[in-house]
Hints:
The complex is a heterodimer of chains A (101) and B (201).
Chain A: H1 2-23, H2 27-52, H3 57-88
Chain B: H1 2-20, H2 26-46, H3 50-74, H4 90-110, H5 124-132, H6 137-158, E1 161-162, E2 165-166
Antiparallel strand pairs in B: 1-2
Helix pairs in contact in B: 1-2, 2-3
Amino acid sequence: xxxxIVLLGASALIGIGLYGALSQxxxxxxxxxxxxxxxxxxxxxxGFWSLGLAGMPEGQLLAIIVxxxxxxxxxxxxxxxxxxxxxxQADMTEALGTLKE
Amino acid sequence: xxxxxxxxxxxxxxxxxWRVFRVDSMVRASFSLMxxxxxVGGVGVVLSMPYIGVATVFMMAVEMMAxxxxxxxxxxxxxxxxxxxxxxxxKFSVGAGVLAWLGLSTAVLSAELPSAPxxxxxxxxxxxxxxxxxxxxxxxxxxxxxxxxTMVGAxxxxxxxxxxxxADHGSRPPGLAEGGDPxxxxxxxxxxxxxxxxxxx
Lengths: 101, 201
């Protein structure tokens, strides 16, 4: 019962995050969408580990890996934003049109 | 009792996650995302995963503060004085998000979920420590090296002194109108863009 609720919440978070990652024009808002999807993934891991795996330690390890992925995503994402801003003074995806055509 | 707390925290996490893309200020959006993460960390604490839950709260508090600072430094309209709706391919995104939500929910509801809850006498944090520094040490160390590589990459990407000269050499901001004058700050000497305009392309 609780596991179903946790997983439904996780799928809602992933859906909202996908919407944000696809729809936002600002780089940072786009990254927030990605983070929200990872948030849903962590919630699903917590639920599965706590209610379905009888506390296998590998489940907690998976959560730690997702957190490492989040740290990598944030650090490199912000570094890329800085690099793009230096080169193009742009903070929106629409301003990067050089790969078009 | 545990169920009620978990449901409340999950509803709060989903609601604040939704608010991220609905508020008018990017700083508010990042704090809303932080609340969503804190609620998920709270679910971890309640569902006997205290180490991960507390670590999530700490990490996300720092990360979202960095994000809020970035918003103020780079983005337009951080204060939320005007309505903010900066989206593209909106209908497609809504469709994709709803489809992902419905699809995952259908999978959850139709699957036969396992039921093997953690018992209260399990030493979960102790088990995690043994796992990290025992059988899964290679994975843990790989994550550490990955984070080191990330730090190096972040410094290189964000450094102004690029390998082939200044990173903002020849920087030309996008025009306010199509083919119009560049908007924003014009890089000064060394930036390669001198103080006469080149006209449109």
